[in-house]
Queue: 3 jobs
Job 1
Amino acid sequence: MRNHTTTHLIALALACASLAAQAQQPVIGQATLVIGQAHIVSPDGSRATAAIGSAIRVGDRIETTSGGHVYLRFVDGANLSVRPESRMHIESYSHNPQQPQLGAIKFKLEEGTARSITGAWGEAARERFRLNTPVAAIGVRGTDFTVSTASDTTNATVYTGAIVLSPLINGCAQSVGPCNSTQSALLSGDMRGQMLELTNREGTPLMVAAQQLQRQARSTPPAAADLIAAAPPVRPAEPADIRHEPTTPAKALDSETRGASVVALGASTPAPAPAPAPIPEPLPTPAPPPPAPAPTPAPVAAPTPAPAPAPTPTPVEVAIVEPPPPVTTPPVVHQLSWARYDWTKSFDSEDFIKTFAEATAAGYQRLGGNGAYSLFNTGAASTASNSQLQEAVVNFRLASASAQFVSPNVWESAKAVNVLGGNLMVDFSRTLFQTSLALQGAQVGYQAVNASGNILTNGALQATAGNANLFGAVTADKQEAGYAFIKTLPTGGAVQGVTLWGR
């Protein structure tokens, strides 16, 4: 009897300790919309049905069924959408305003699909934001992106911002932020219609054309319809320890919420048939009145046909609608200019490239070149603000680009190659850069140009890793950049070209 009591007390103490440890974890977010079946699994293994207002803590795992969606909003304004048949683990979510480098945001998508929109904490510490899958490490540089994963495949699409996708090797699982290596690949919102795909943990991410996402439409179950109809678009009351920071409309999952809120409006409940009127008691028959002259009969109108019965409305199915990619105008570059040598072929689309004679006649300052092109500083005045000059990490946008295929046969003329998009990230605090370009042409097929390296004191880009030779520079005001590239092809020949970047 004593042993049984002791065992019971020990189990009770362990349960109380587990509950106390869970209670000590602060609330970092809450569920703002739940559709279908979903659960929140605590670190101790206990499961709770997800509902609007459910608190989210570090260590929780969100699990959805085949028809389940959960939308989370975090304390810093970040949003996370966990799609059907998915498991998302919140491994860490912390912030230190005085020392952002000590904070860390780390998710693990074990299977399924999720969409993440970075909040204030993720923006403040872009080198400390990571999303892992079973095969990939995704460093998040302040962005809106979608990831899908299975046991051996991960693919990612970016709407805005940029991510760095690497195979989950060499200790990447334990670190935070981008896991830079020679097998890393960068994808940004500027690279429209492209998707990164990694098919095994030892492989290299490939850039492929993004397929149109299939919109999974499902009939709204009665419980979900009641839930959505009861409280659109008002947000539920939040726990006392949640503090939301303001966020821009672009950083909201409003489009997804609106799509999820399309309920079966046409399937209205038919009104009940009216009750039959009671039959009155018969009254005494009154004496007949004196006869009156017969009135002139009124013309008989044709009977009005009864209206045709309304067709039975078809229920509207719930659909999760992805927002279209934002339309942005390319930045304007006025401090840097490219010039070609006489022996470099020109194309009609290269109106931003001058001849060498034109650049020198205009008095531009030559910064250097690679034998095919030269980069010039036009001498235009800087328009940078103090806040822009102090930014540590800058994601440049592609302003202009041109590429061509140079055949190994010197008698064959160069052929134009399309530049699909690209990204250039510069970390001025560590004097590092990383860039990626997507190219496509009839002679070369699809080609990816990747390079990373150092920024010298004079602003020159010095590539130390990648698959192409690079020459370029960043302006002193951190507003513009440009580089020329040459990538030798294993089948013979090379692709070469130039780029200009702005803010």
Job 2
Amino acid sequence: MSEANIEGNTGGAAPTRKEPDHIRRVLTIWVVLSIVGIVIWVIVSPYILPPSASDIDSAANFTLVVFTGLSIPVAMFVFVFLGYSLFVFRVKGRPTEDAIPLKPRPGLQIGWMGVTGALCLFLLIWGLSAFYQQTASAAVSPLVVKVTGQQWAWTFNYPQYGASSQGQLIELPVNRPVEFDVTSEDVLHGFAIRALGVRVDANPGEVTTTPITTPTQIGQYSVACVELCGLYHSYMWSTVKVVSASDFSSWIISQGGHP
């Protein structure tokens, strides 16, 4: 009997199924989801991040946007590989045989170390650059505001003008560098003005000076205590108004100071 007849009787050998290129699939999914995630983040970030009213806070918001955008591909890399493995290579019941042992791949290991090392170096350079710009732009004689925290209110003094804020409202002139000297009379408090990029602990018996910040937007912003300081911690709120230079001088006079 000929080979053709034999094949006709047996129906021929079943064709072998070609294994798909899983690496290419996963990388394609990863690239697509990373691009989509970055685009969505860039679009929605202005609506999520609070408004900036100073040079420091603008730089902080920009850093959040950049670093979050960089973290999206890293997160997608983990989630895509994990999800693909769970759904594509999942088997029913208990495994009956051992998996294929992993083989060392020096190129993959070196590449992974290179990528992570480059990211860490980028973060270091970014931080040093921001620190240098902040130091180089520091004013010689900024407006000094002495801040004292106590349960459960803030006291604000302007030593250059011999004035003290009467009540829970302070004013700052727009486009003038400001630094805060912060302390506490009793327990640990946290002095924060998010819109100005100010956040520092108020420690009892110790004065901490904040980095110099320059208000750039006229408006009204919140001052909050961000350290749990007792029963009425949640009521320890104040208001800061950024006003024009002339309005600030008038306000200083109204608080018993000299312009």
Job 3
Amino acid sequence: MTARFLVSGLVQGVGFRHFVSRHAGRIGIAGWVQNLADGRVEVVAQGQQSSIDLLEAELRLGPRAARVETVFREEVSDEVVTANTFAAR
């Protein structure tokens, strides 16, 4: 399955992308994380349902310096992810 997350709050400039990359790699998720111009962070993650759910829980916590306000989740087409790795953009 593939999910797209939009995370808002204090999530840029606090190591959020590195935090997500580390957790995604640890649980075997492919995809990417990137900062958006509007201050949110976008995460596209592909993997087992249980792994996606674990990543979502981590996104809601964020790194220590972050203040996550909302996490929006939607399912997207599996074709969105073309690599078997996870990358910070």
